[in-house]
TrEMBL record:
Residues 226-343 form the MurNAc-LAA domain. Gene3D superfamilies: Zn-dependent exopeptidases (3.40.630.40). Keywords: Hydrolase, Membrane, Transmembrane, Transmembrane helix. The keyword Ion transport does not apply. CDD domains: MurNAc-LAA (cd02696). GO terms for biological process: peptidoglycan catabolic process. The keyword Plastid does not apply. It comes from Roseburia faecis. InterPro entries: MurNAc-LAA_cat (IPR002508), N-acetylmuramoyl_amidase_3 (IPR050695). This is N-acetylmuramoyl-L-alanine amidase. PANTHER family: N-ACETYLMURAMOYL-L-ALANINE AMIDASE, N-ACETYLMURAMOYL-L-ALANINE AMIDASE AMIC. Pfam families: Amidase_3. GO terms for cellular component: outer membrane-bounded periplasmic space.
Length: 350
């Protein structure tokens, strides 16, 4: 009896060993590519589009003699102070919210002007607010004015008012943490670096407009991230990530890598931008230069229509580098490197 039990224990532990070995070999591939691939599987095509509830052409009374693209009649008693206008660049959606919304705005009030650049529009009530949502065909800045019970809006191409337009992406966010090592999430490191970069641009007095895919713990879809760059026709698209060893285990592997689009054969290419990013981040952080990586397997790189570089600042699977990445001083150095890279790219003509 004992012998049979012993035999089974041996057989079972043998099988268990094989399973463990196989899973260690195949599963903990928490390397960046694997993480991003999993995310893109879930998210591609999952844009947060607002349902078209009205045909813009049918709703907007075409009128050419207006001194604005749109004239939106506001319900009686609604003045400038009762209206809130939000421009969500990530989804290219304008929300015009007014207190005490009416039931069916479109049937009772007029929108005049031109429906050009409006991909879809909707009106809905959100609690006690009426909301007109306009989804635009690209990123626009707005010029608004109020006059005699109406709101006048113009859509302005950012390139008409800024010298340079950049999109900066902090990788992952919210439930998508990226790699997690010793309780430190990649999403938080990426965001911390981007927030330091934002400080540098906030103090920059040049006419540079930076659009961020996120400035807090949110998780725009991969498609929204890349579309922000495409629809702003950005001069540069920079995505900030941190790396993990392919095994997922702590190792001696450390340093900075930058991914680029190998299919981009423009003179001011993704690869050249990646080189500039790599050099500058290594310069300010003192990290090891681990070179460039082809990145067309990554959705946001492959589908970017503008020069893109995905910077893997450091390895979270290296104890020393994880400590550095988690420190404000190193995050600042990384941000300075990216800032310097952007300036060098502009000098190169991007
Ligand atoms: Zn990442």
């Amino acid at each position: 009896m004992d012998e049979i039990v012993l035999k089974w224990v041996t057989v079972l532990s043998g099988i268990l060993t094989v399973i463990v070995c196989v899973s260690v070999f195949f599963f903990p591939d928490i390397h960046e590519r694997a993480v991003l691939a999993a995310e893109q599987q879930k998210e591609v095509g999952g844009g947060n589009l607002i349902a078209t509830t009205a045909n813009p052409k049918a709703v907007v009374e075409q009128s050419k003699d207006l001194n604005a693209q749109l004239k939106i009649a506001l319900p009686e008693g609604i003045s400038k102070a009762d209206v809130e206008i939000e421009n969500d660049y990530v989804t290219q959606t304008i929300y015009i919210k007014f207190a005490g919304g009416v039931d069916d705005y479109f049937e009772q009030y007029a929108i005049k002007g031109s429906s050009d650049h409006i991909a879809s529009m909707a009106y809905y009530k959100d609690k006690e607010e009426g909301v007109i949502a306009l989804q635009l065909d690209q990123v626009y800045e707005l010029k608004n004015r109020f006059k005699k019970g109406s709101l006048y809006i113009d859509f302005i191409d950012p390139h008409d008012i800024y010298d340079k337009v950049i999109v900066v992406d902090a990788g992952h966010g919210s439930h998508a943490a990226g790699a997690v090592k010793l309780g430190i999430s990649e999403k938080s490191l990426n965001l911390a670096i981007v927030q330091q970069l934002k400080k540098l641009f906030d103090e920059d007095k040049r006419r540079i407009r930076v659009y961020y895919t996120r400035t807090s713990d949110t998780n725009p879809t991969l498609d929204q991230r890349v579309q922000l760059a495409n629809k702003a026709n950005a001069d540069l698209f920079i995505s900030v990530h941190n790396n993990s060893d392919a095994t997922g285990n702590f190792t001696k592997v450390k340093g900075t890598q930058v991914m680029y689009s190998e299919s981009d054969d423009a003179k001011l290419s993704s690869k050249k931008l990646a080189e500039i990013c790599l050099k500058n981040v290594v310069d300010t952080t003192g990290s090891e230069n681990r070179g460039l990586l082809k990145g067309d397997s990554i959705y946001i790189i492959r589908t970017s229509k503008v020069p893109v570089a995905l910077i893997e600042v450091g390895f979270m699977t290296n104890y020393k580098e994880l400590d550095l990445l988690n420190s404000t001083s190193y995050q600042k150095k990384a941000a300075e490197g990216i800032y310097n890279a952007i300036n060098e790219a502009f000098q190169e003509g991007y």
